[in-house]
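pls design
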């Protein structure tokens, strides 16, 4: 039983991630379809991060976890189990795991990017639009950690794992 939402963080640029060749055939094919090597490497690392998190809940080796895609292309466990979601950007991945539908996203903030415009597009009007400048700035600071609650970031148990039972991993 999972209490709340567990969120795991993985550094995708760290050493030690297995190669795409060790993923199941559909995931190998997807990894080989990326034009840029760094994008393919990070995507592969994010899949291993997902598998290593899931193996800690399922007591199944990471390479043996069977994932299928639902009608929207979202991965699910073939035989059921906890709900999960994977988000990644640049060299960081987040994996959320819960007993109910869950989502997580992460976006790298790049210098020169208009984060206020992004906040106004992504946040509900009550949080980012039509507010005095000071309150809009607060909404912009909250944007990178927002997980979907209209009242701000939810209070969830954050996990910063070291070694998972499924083998060593480059977590930071």
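designed seq:
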């Amino acid at each position: 039983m999972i209490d709340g939402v567990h969120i795991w963080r993985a550094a995708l640029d760290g050493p030690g991630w297995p190669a795409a060749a060790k993923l199941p055939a559909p995931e190998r094919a997807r990894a080989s379809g990326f034009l840029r090597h760094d994008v393919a490497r990070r995507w592969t690392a994010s899949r291993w991060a997902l598998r290593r998190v899931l193996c800690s809940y399922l007591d199944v080796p990471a390479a043996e976890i069977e994932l299928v895609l639902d009608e929207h292309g979202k991965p699910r466990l073939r035989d059921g189990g906890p709900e999960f979601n994977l988000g990644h950007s640049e060299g960081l991945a987040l994996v959320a795991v819960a007993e109910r539908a869950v989502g997580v996203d992460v976006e790298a903030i790049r210098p020169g990017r208009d984060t206020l415009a992004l906040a106004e597009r992504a946040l509900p009007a009550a949080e980012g639009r039509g507010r005095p400048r000071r309150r809009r700035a607060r909404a912009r600071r909250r944007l990178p950690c927002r997980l979907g609650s209209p009242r701000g970031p939810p209070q969830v148990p954050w996990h910063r794992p070291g070694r998972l039972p499924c083998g060593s991993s480059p977590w930071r």
